[in-house]
Specification:
Shape: globular
Order of helices and strands: HEHEHEE
Helix content: 25-40%
Largest sheet: 2 strands, antiparallel
CATH topology of one domain: Alpha-Beta Plaits
Radius of gyration: 15 Å
Number of helices: 3
Number of strands: 4
Structural class: alpha+beta
Distance between the termini: 26 Å
Strand content: 15-25%
CATH class of one domain: Alpha Beta
Length: 76
Amino acid sequence: MSRMYSVIQKPVITEKATDDTAQRNAYHFRVPLSANKVEIRQAVEKLFDVHVESVNTARVRSKYRRRGWTAGETQA
């Protein structure tokens, strides 16, 4: 059971994710890069007691940002 909690790290709560939930009944979660679709499906089904139709994944890279002299990257 602890592996299930390490696969699903936290939900993504953005305007786009909220609209997706309302329109397509799709939910967004942050998962580690090492997790595959089968592990994600099993974790969501066990933790939330639902049937998962499909799993889509995307790798979102961090963006380079500057503020005056300070430079850095956003959280990915």
